[in-house]
Known about the structure:
Helices cover 31% and strands 29% of the residues. With 353 residues, it is an alpha/beta fold. The protein folds into 2 domains: 10-164, no CATH class; 199-318. Strand 4 (92-104) and strand 5 form a beta hairpin. The radius of gyration is 24 Å and the shape is elongated.
Amino acid sequence: xxxxxxxxxxxxxxxxxxxxxxxxxxxxxxxxxxxxxxxxxxxxxxxxxxxxxxxxxxxxxxxxxxxxxxxxxxxxxxxxxxxxxxxxxxxxxxxxxxxxxxxxxxxxxxxxxxxxxxxxxxxxxxxxxxxxxxxxxxxxxxxxxxxxxxxxxxxxxxxxxxxxxxxxxxxxxxxxxxxxxxxxxxxxxxxxxxxxxxxxxxxxxxxxxxxxxxxxxxxxxxxxxxxxxxxxxxxxxxxxxxxxxxxxxxxxxxxxxxxxxxxxxxxxxxxxxxxxxxxxxxxxxxxxxxxxxxxxxxxxxxxxxxxxxxxxxxxxxxxxxxxxxxxxxxxxxxxxxxxxxxxxxxxxxxxxx
Length: 353
């Protein structure tokens, strides 16, 4: 695994690989004591505020996790458990614990980040909860991020979910039976954080701000057709949010150029597929008026309003782009259920079915 680079005053890694998660706790205790002695700044703070579990299953998810974790700050004492699953390998566990200390505040006290890299193979990978339970504290919130497609119907995942206060997903990667499975977990009170929803945060804030403009308000609030260009999953999620926020009766989205016969008063949803997974353009059309909001170079969008083909207003507006590490930092310590996202997701699932 790639080294997890975070700002550190002191970094110590256990010299030998461990073959059991039961031995990891003792190793972490020894490393923390060594850190305190080396820094000569008193006892390191280890009262963890959270435990983050990051699970990867292939080289692509490894690379995604490494990029996010390099950009992830750790302002509070916490534990990061980085797991590489290999269900097809020879049964066993390989563990390598480490600690990093950042000196914060006055009086100067080292804050410990505990790192545990695990390779879980074979039968142990099919019993995740049992394998990693010794590393979890019932009094410390656990956040799970399964990088890529979270296999919600997998028995080993279902056994692990009750240990987690928050589960980080990317709804853009879910399809087929995984979407109903996600709704079922929501119905049972499970708390999820959606990276796709967070990626759309800049678009939601932008469109909300535009709707406050007297000149643009009618075009956004009462359109006859809304066209979203970009990746299908995020485009439909944005449509679902708009419909809930503005009280639209939204017809099932159809591809651009497709025919749709909808009841009077229903907003036509049109999807224009683009290679990008993110949203690139949103267009609101009513009678002879068209409002187009389209992404330009990174960090900016163009806003253009036309009436009867004549340009009425044109301007540029900022559109923030947040890194994956920043998005992950936003969601890992917020454990409340996001009812606005849940409502948009339910509308999305209905539209995609």
